[in-house]
Amino acid sequence: MSSESSVAPGLAPEEPNHWRRFLSIWVIASVIGTPLIVLLVGPLLGPSTGSEEAGGQHTIMTVLAAVATPVFMLVVLFIAYSLVYFRQEKGAALEGPAIRGNARVQAVWIVVTSLIVLGLAVYGTYELEDHYGHGSGSGPNPLTVPSGPKLPVQVIAQQWLFTYRYPTYGGVETTHLELPVDQEVEFNVTSLDVIHSFWAYKLGVKADANPGANNIAFVKPTKEESFEVRCAELCGIWHGAMVNPGKVVSATAFNTWIHEQQARLAPATKALPSYSKTYIPEPTRRAE
Amino acid sequence: MNVTNTPDPDTTASAAANPRPVWRRLIGFNLLTAVILGVGGYYLGWWIGHLIKGPSYAYESATDENDVALLLGYLGGVLGFLIGMGFANYPISRLLGRPASLREKEGEGIGRYFGLCTDHKVVGMQYLVGIGVFFFIGGLNAMMIRAELLHDTPTIVGPNQYLTLVGVHGTMMMGMMTSGVLGPFANYFVPIMIGARRMAFPRIESLTFWLLMAAGFILVSTIFFGGFPTGWTGYQPLNDQAVAGMDSYICFFALVGISMALLGMNMIATILTMRAPGMTWSRLPIFVWAVFGTAVLMVLAAPMLIATLGMAALDRSINTSFFIAGGGGSSYLFENLFWFFGHPEVYILALPGFGIVLELLPVFVRKPLWGYKLAISGMLGVSLLSFFVWQHHLFVSGINADLRPFYMLSTEIISVPTGFIFLCFMGTLWKGRMSLTVPMLFCLAWAFNFLIGGTSGVVLSDVATDTQLHGSFFVMAHFHYTIMGGLIFSFFAAIYYWVPKMTGLRFNETLAKWHFWLMFLAFNSTFLPLFALGIMGMPRRVSSYEASLVPLNTWVSISAFVLGFSMLIFIVNTVYSMIFARVPAEANPWNSKSTEWQLPTPVPVHNFDQIPVFDSDPYDYGTPVPIAIGRSAPAGA
Amino acid sequence: MSVMAKKVIGVTLAVAVVGVAIALYVADWATSFPPPVSSTVNPVSAGGGANLTIETVGAVGRKVSPANPDWVSYLVKSHGRWVHSTIYTVPANSVVHVTLYEFDSASGLRNQFFSQVQGTVGGTMTLDGKTVNAVNGEEAAHSFAIPELGVFVPLPGVSEAEEEKDFCEEAPCEPGQYHHRTITFSFRTGKKGHYRWQCFVPCGAGFLNGNGGPMQTLGYMDGFIDVV
After folding, report:
1. Closest listed residue to residue C149, CA positions, set C226, C221, C70, C204
2. A241 has a chain C CB within 8 A of its CB
3. Among residues B180, B178, B256, which one has the least CA distance to residue B217?
4. Residue pair B76/B42 in contact by the 8 Å Cβ criterion
5. Are A140 and B402 in contact (CB under 8 A)?
6. Distance, CA of A281 to CA of A269 (rounded, Å)
7. Which of A74, A183, B371, C73 is the Cys-Cys partner for B424 at CB 3.0 to 4.6 Å?
């Protein structure tokens, strides 16, 4: 892409300055397009109100969409520009200029793309660790842990139902997930058989459930609403049907509910093993 | 349908001299013998398996499955098939000290396409048709999947069968299309492009093809054994729990792995050692560089897969516990081993696409390739980095949290060398003289699709957004855009570009353009909404989903049917052009300066009468650019 | 047309015909479901609601399932005969009364949470005539659960002594001929829908965790409740 002004004298001077023309088209499109994407498409990029984590994820999605828009425009507009201006005339057999490269353009491209990518990586890491994993399953020893009181809820995944155990409420196990609003929750996700994945969409939580392993995710629900829990890792015939309803309620409603569950499910709770981060119930290998 | 234009002198001479009755010609090491010995080998293996571990074993008497018998049966079947095809002849002749034949079936007539042939061009043609058939089968599976997804509960297809369809679709496509470009086009054209008469190991070249065919047959046989519920990733411990159909998946992928490793090794050996005089590394066509990068990945990644599947087979059949937490193993081990292969695997799929597009662009833009060295660094950079990113498939699975920032960084970084390819693409288009032939249309579509696919990959590489999107239809859209929108579109570009040379026949232009436009529009209409479905919370591999998503799924399914219809147009075009119309193609219809187009059509068995001496790379297009006084020449970089 | 062209066209046609036949076979395989069986609806004068009679057997036998004779399975009574199906049609907005004959021996629950009866009318079931709201999880042979309706019913199995004396090796099993447990419970249905049901006891003998094979196959330990 040698600049037109250095074409040797004597050659066609009326060739348009493609470089400048394309650049202006791209800049204008990006300046108009990026805010449009952020304003129109941004709100659609996932749940944002259910919890702090969901809100943060939504923000990051919007940032990434905003960064992607100019990149997308660059290539697509370039192809469109080429389709208009760099065509072979019908029936002609002309050749283009034998340009094999341009060191300056390549250097700029390498530097700019590397900076964008490094910037995104730094941004992503900061966001991740500053927000205690942002709702993702961070393993048994998360890098950063929120301070303050946390409500521990164990998510037990089995084929093909999620059950929830509340160790601070007598180890009662339920099939519905109810959480108090504005309270930091520590999910301890484990599985009894195969790999599942605990996905509370509106809360922005996703943590794989592995047998014999504990996977911790932190969430702070901020809105009283119903949500759905789905399984996000193929676990057999009813993987798609492994859906639980869940609710975020006020602290008092939660208290009432959990005591109701403790009373109603007392026989089941008595039969359960004592609370532990992982379980390997019989049969551990093949059933007899 | 692959009969050459001019009658092959070898066939007519020998046929005239030695007419043999049909039944006598059928005896020998050929496809028929291979099938017979394959079936025999299968039953032999099955019987041995029953002797080792029969109904007296409590496990088998309770489950009514015998994994040992099935695995040994498949092994016996494959060995019988290969022996019947004639692959054991050369090693055994050598062992016994007898003179061994160096060429098999070269120049013998249509029969050579159905057996062991050492002519690399025949192997390329075999690959094209063989992979095409299995690609079509995988596509039909996809049509059934989309038909089921018109409903939000299991309605047309039972929930088990649905999972098997999803698994066979994914596994078939991934296994077959890994060799989708290297098999047909690299085998056919790399020797010609580097000035060689054959590949380094012609017999192994043919072996990789027949292994793949045997593997494909094994995979489709899974429906006789109950199918498999794990999808193409075969995660443990669901893998261990599954009925005998799971063994079909294990055998398929192990055979594919072996085929990949051998194919890669053959390519590397050929490119390293058999370049003609003057074909230096800096004159190598960019397609050959892409093949080289892909081959290195194949050789390094495939053995990991084979070992992993071997462990899975042991877990399933003889009760080891590599991946079973209750027995002392770990399900994480499988995930890590699989994705250590799995991530280079997807770059094995992407790199040949880069090579094809950059190879074809100069021909249709009448300019040299812009940024040759940059493109090579992009491809090799992607190859190298692809081994350092695999844990991004495991961001939410509970891996050590210290690792995630590193893998986020490495995954983001790998988009930089990928970006080089786009820069070279744009640089080559710059001020060119583009003619919109069908291959060129597919190359432009590649750029559009891979851009969307790649950008969505950057979104997934951030752990926080991956938390929302992992295991959802967003990931499906991402990889369909990169693999189907990228590789498959470039695959069709290569077909429309090179088949006139391989067969000497032209495609019908109208049908080809209909194919392209319908495919491009239907593809985007099918997969763009999947991003939305993922963001709206629909998980992957489900046949039950939220009722509010039915309208969008209906739109996607109908688009998918149109996409399938566009493939039908391609098949009609192929059958019509190759069998009925048979319009001969000139030796160089695209006016390309690449080596293969300087040869006559059909390409003679020995490729070159004399080994060529190269004095430039194949991108000698374009009018020289005048150099302004006082500035250095545009870098040939 | 030349001889070669005719041969090629012939081969293409043959390939197409074989291809279509294979496609039809695969489509048939993909779309096969066990046959749906309706509950018997009681007249309003008799209290309304619907009745469903099902049984669980320890080995389904070669006659009923030649491919998997040793798998455990549910069967349902339809017009006086036992049918090998797990797809039941029940009326909406009514009470379904289930009578279940348990012929299999215990495997034990994997998650003892399911040892308590949940989601039935009154939160109880009758076990051999006695009303209970929970059982010993170790004694469960199977369970009947409709997660979307909140129904979880554990089904204790025959004892070891009974198993030694007589054990129904082949379906259908008649209550008069072999030892069994009789369990009855009722659940309410609401609006129309297509709900799945499954067993939660790892009864797939020989499979990992006991959750493979019949536990993952429609017609054995999984099915649908069609509320119409």
Report:
1. C226
2. yes
3. B256
4. yes
5. no
6. 16
7. B371
Tell whether B63 and B177 lie within a shared domain: no
B346 Cβ partners below 8 Å, 6+ apart? Answer: B386, B479, B482, B483
Q: How near does any CA of chain B get to the CA of C227, in Å?
A: 14
Shared domain for B471 and B528, answered yes or no, is: yes
Distances (CA, A) of A59 to A141, A185, A227, B385, B491: 26, 21, 20, 29, 38
SS3 state of residue B203: helix
- Return the residue matching tokens 């500035």: B631
Of A121, A280, A285, the CB nearest to B319: A285
CB distance from B237 to chain C under 8 Å?
Answer: yes
CA–CA dist C123, C111 (Å, integer)? 19
Question: Does residue B212 sit in the same domain as residue B86?
Answer: no
φ, ψ of residue A78 in degrees (nearest 5): -65, -45
Q: How does pLDDT run along chain C (228 residues), one tens digit per residue? A: 577 778 878 888 898 899 899 989 999 999 999 999 998 888 777 777 899 999 999 899 888 888 889 899 999 999 889 999 999 999 999 999 999 999 998 888 999 999 999 999 999 999 999 999 999 988 999 999 999 999 999 999 988 887 778 888 888 888 888 889 999 999 999 899 999 999 999 998 888 888 989 999 999 999 999 999
- Tens of pLDDT, residues A108-165: 999 999 999 999 999 999 988 888 888 999 999 888 899 999 999 999 999 999 999 9
Distance in angstroms (rounded) separating the CA atoms of residues B247 and B240? 10
Taking the C-alpha atoms of residue B185 and residue B287, their distance in angstroms, rounded to an integer, is: 10
Whether residue B285 contacts residue B193, with contact meaning beta carbons closer than 8 Å, is answered with: yes
Tell me: do C18 and C120 sit in the same domain. no
Contact between A158 and A192 (Cβ < 8 Å): yes
Cis omega (within 30 of 0) for bond into C172: yes
Q: Are B497 and B364 in contact (CB under 8 A)?
A: no
Cβ <8 Å between B575 and C12: yes
Minimal Cα distance from A196: which residue of B? B397
Per-residue model confidence as pLDDT tens digits over B398-415 = 998 888 999 999 999 999
Cβ pair B241:A7 closer than 8 A: no
Of B57, B78, B102, the last residue of a domain is B102
Residue B107 DSSP one-character state: T
Contact indicator for A202, A229 with CB cutoff of 8 Å: no
- Exposure string (b/e) for C75-88, b if CB count within 10 Å is 16 or more? bbbbeeebbbbbbb
Helices B202-220 and B120-148 pack at an angle, to 10 degrees, of: 20
Q: Provide, as residue numbers in chain C, all residues whose Cβ is less than 8 Å from the Cβ of B157.
A: 30-31
The SS3 of residue C225 is strand
CA–CA min distance B160, chain A (Å)? 6
Where are the alpha helices (H) located in B414-508, listed in sequence order?
415-429, 438-461, 463-469, 473-479, 489-503
**Tens of pLDDT, residues B212-247:** 999 999 999 999 999 999 999 999 899 999 999 999
Same structural domain for residues C28 and C122? no
What ipTM does the predicted assembly reach? 0.93
On whether the CB atoms of residues B465 and A70 are closer than 8 A, the answer is no
Classify residue C207 by its DSSP letter. Answer: S
CATH number for the domain spanning C90: value is 2.60.40
Chains contacting B (3 or more CB pairs within 8 Å): A, C
Indicate whether C191 and C103 sit together in one domain. Answer: yes
Q: C102 and C24 in one domain?
A: no
- Note whether A97 and B623 are within 8 A (CB): yes
Whether residues B175 and B46 share a domain: the answer is no
Determine if residue B611 is left, alpha or beta; phi over 0 gives left, psi from -120 to 50 gives alpha, anything else beta: beta
Say how far apart CA B536 and CA B474 lie, in whole Å. 9
Tokens of B319: 């009760």
d(CA A172, CA A222) in angstroms, rounded, equals: 24
Among B568, B454, B432, smallest CA distance to B136 is for B568
